Amino acid sequence: MAYEKLVSEWPGIFIIITTISCNVTAQFFKFFVHRWRTKEWSLTALLTTGGMPSSHTAAMIGLAVSVGIICGINSVEFAIAAVLAGVVIHDALGIRRHAGIQAKMLNRIIADVQELGDSIAEGGVFDNPAYDKKLKELLGHEPIEVLGGIIYGAIMSVVVFGIFMLFLSF
After folding, report:
1. pLDDT tens-digit readout, 88-128
2. How far apart are the C-alpha atoms of 28 and 76, rounded to whole Å?
3. Cα angle vertex 124, ends 122, 130, to 5°?
4. What keywords does the record list, in alphabetical order (predicted)?
5. Contacts of 43 by beta carbon, 8 Å cutoff, 6+ apart
6. Rounded distance between C-alpha atoms, residue 20 and residue 155, angstroms
7. How far is residue 100's CA from residue 123's CA, in Å, rounded to a whole number?
8. Residues 170, 168: Cα–Cα separation, whole Å
9. Which is higher by pLDDT, 124 or 18?
């Protein structure tokens, strides 16, 4: 009875709430993972990209799982959500991760040249204030962080589904 009510009366709301819940709670979870890893509290961990778990991956898995619950895993809607999740996962492991590696290298090169001073960078090229701001290095994810996002998104989707079932059974 509750499942039929969910599918007939609340499908869109369920999918949206599941997806947002996966994203927001995974981002919040990063705050505590950062604390555990570094022994420091950092509010920037709440807003940063990269890190454990991947909140983008968790959100996309939440979307795919919730669409699968509502529409079935043999539906066109689920196929679209699954493909989108795959694209986001590929992006997190690929281009975003490599952009972070490049940023780390560029930051190191600029720091090294600035240390050598004007003898190398004649005319003070690297004295420009634009080089004082470091590039963001934590852009993508390590494979374990993406796997964490996949597991977190799947578990959170089931939790949200259980909450909806409980709510709709009254």
Report:
1. 998 887 776 666 667 677 777 777 666 666 555 555 555 55
2. 32
3. 140
4. Membrane, Transmembrane, Transmembrane helix
5. 31
6. 14
7. 29
8. 5
9. 18
